[in-house]
Write a structure and sequence with these properties.
- It comes from Nocardia terrae.
- Keywords: Hydrolase, Magnesium, Manganese, Metal-binding, NAD.
- Belongs to the Nudix hydrolase family. NudC subfamily.
- By secondary structure, this protein is of the alpha+beta class.
- It has two domains: about 120 residues, no CATH class; about 150 residues, Alpha-Beta Complex (Nucleoside Triphosphate Pyrophosphohydrolase).
- About 25% of the residues lie in helices and about 30% in strands.
- It has eight helices and 16 strands.
- The radius of gyration is 21 Å and the shape is globular.
Length: about 300
């Protein structure tokens, strides 16, 4: 059995952002800080302005003279307050983290800023009414909660999901699957959302059985990464399965899956990451295995396993 560990921190977990939680409830400090604050503007597609591997931050007062309830407080850069707001009027060199993250080569500060902003703004878009009393809600605590007309406070949701690298007993082969909506040849780790009342380990067992019909054992935790599309937390695992057990696709999410050798995976990694902004990799007719982009924890897990031996 392979005993590998992650050899790098997943890209979206490398944030250097100071979240400054102590300021969220300090209305006076937030109001005063707006005058010198920097603002990240993001449209409804999750696109922002990018320049030289960093997100473009603008003076908050260029957007509004005073702090608006639509803006969410992200944290501090030194003494400078950082905010984000949904703004569909932005123009220029636009890109989004999910589609272009593999080739943008953003710095750790920018990825942390984007991950937080995307998750928060996505939650606000769908939390306009209280799930408890049905009345309208307004943003409170710098955008880190919403309070209903009846006084009920709600907080941003995070949906846990497991993602698992499955090896054979020797640890030298890995099972990868392809979803129906993915391009031909693009394979990744198997993943799924944790259900109510379910442990993470049980979720790994259930999801893999549902998706490819395989029983797994020796489940071991590797690490985690935020995945704000729209608001998930990916929890990485490794497990062992028997390659002789037939593969069956029960729920229709996975349409094909195969066991790949370490050499095959290493060759695919050397060829580059697939992404919607990387057509050269996608169009290569010689590739029989494409792997996910670098912002996914799947990439980090696969790279760590491939580096073994």
């Amino acid at each position: 059995m392979s005993g590998f560990q992650l050899n790098a921190i997943p890209v979206l977990s490398r944030t250097s952002l100071d979240r400054a939680e102590h300021l969220r409830s300090d209305e006076q400090a937030l109001k005063e800080g707006w005058a010198q604050a920097k603002l990240l503007r993001m449209n409804r597609r999750g696109q922002v302005r990018i320049d030289g591997g960093a997100v473009v931050l603008e003076a908050a007062t260029d957007f509004a003279d005073e702090r608006t309830l639509e803006a969410v407080f992200l944290g501090l850069d030194g003494d400078i307050h950082l905010w984000a707001v949904r703004d569909n009027t932005i123009e220029g060199n636009l890109a989004d983290l999910r589609a272009h993250g593999a080739t943008l080569e953003l710095d750790d500060f920018s990825t942390g800023l984007l991950s937080t902003a995307i998750a928060l703004l996505n939650w606000h878009d769908k939390a306009r009414y209280s799930s408890t009393d049905g009345t309208a809600t307004v943003a409170t605590n710098g955008g880190w909660s919403r309070t209903s007309e009846a006084g009920h406070e709600e907080f941003p949701r995070t949906d846990p999901a497991v993602i698992c690298l499955i090896t054979d007993e020797s640890g030298d082969r890995v099972l990868l699957g392809r979803q129906n909506s993915w391009p031909e040849g693009l394979f990744s780790l198997l993943a799924g959302f944790v259900e109510a009342g379910e442990s993470l380990e049980r979720c790994v067992e259930r999801e893999i059985k549902e998706e490819v019909g395989v029983d797994v054992r020796d489940i071991r935790y590797l690490g985690s990464q935020p995945w704000p599309f729209p608001r998930s937390l990916m929890l990485g695992f490794t497990a062992v399965a028997d390659p002789e057990q037939p593969l069956t696709f029960h729920d229709g999410e996975i349409v094909e899956a195969y066991w790949f050798t370490r050499d095959e995976v290493r060759e695919a990694l050397a060829a580059g990451a697939w992404g919607r902004d990387n057509t050269e990799v996608l169009q290569s007719t010689e590739r029989k295995l494409l792997l996910p982009g670098s912002i996914s924890i799947a990439r980090t897990i696969v790279e760590s396993w491939a580096a073994e031996g």
